[in-house]
Amino acid sequence: MAEASADPAIRRYNGGHDWRGRPAPPLSVRDAETVIDQFATNWRAFAATGAPCGVVFAIVDARSGAAVGCCGVDDWSKEDVAQFGYWVAPSARGRGYATRAAILLTRWLFHLGAARVFLTIVAGNEESVAVARRAGFAYEGTMRAHGVWQGERCDVLWFAALPLEWAPDEGR
Ligand SMILES: CC(C)(COP(=O)(O)OP(=O)(O)OC[C@H]1O[C@@H](n2cnc3c(N)ncnc32)[C@H](O)[C@@H]1OP(=O)(O)O)[C@@H](O)C(=O)NCCC(=O)NCCS
Q: Which of 69, 123, 135, 158 could staple 88 via S-S, CB 3.0–4.6 A?
């Protein structure tokens, strides 16, 4: 977690930033442990409430068990709409881990009863757009100037999947 948080793309697209889009510093190992403790708290809350807000999965290689990334539920609304996000460490990109994780997480959310699952992707993050498309998400539109990064406004794209129409590439 600490190493990944220093990767420029993860810092840009997954890390926190202030109101002017100035990124938070990378996590120390201690910070990363605190974040992981919070994930454990979120899992316990899910067990109690049934709403998986803030639950996070490690993405691991199915054969070796090596941890390569993370995906997690950012929100589950009272209308049963779920939002999630993901990242993969730079050395593990280009092998389909994020697509597979997005498909498995979406399937899990539908099994839990999500009526809609969506992703927001900053315009220009083509790698993430490709993950969304391969995982069977439909582009729904662009929220213009919705985000901010380093003092510049940026557009944010919406992608969503609905249970009855969702058709991921099952070969993934
Ligand atoms: C977005 C991000 C997760 C995408 O990672 P990625 O490795 O490109 O995506 P995947 O793991 O799905 O791998 C897809 C690549 O593996 C290839 N691949 C190989 N086997 C594959 C398989 N079984 N299934 C899918 N793709 C496969 C694909 O062809 C693709 O390669 P290409 O880009 O050369 O066409 C990564 O760039 C990242 O962590 N970025 C920073 C954080 C971020 O942007 N998070 C998302 C915020 S919305």
A: 69
Q: Which domains does the chain have, with CATH numbers?
A: 4-161 (3.40.630.30)
Contact 117, 150 (CB under 8 A): no
- Ligand 1: which of 127, 139, 170 to mutate, most ligand atoms within 8 Å of CB? 127
pTM (two decimals): 0.96
Q: State the helix-helix crossing angle for 126-134 and 97-112, rounded to 10 degrees.
A: 50
Q: Considering only CA atoms, which of 32, 15, 6 is closest in space to residue 147?
A: 15
pLDDT in tens, 110-151: 999 999 999 999 999 999 999 999 999 999 999 999 999 999
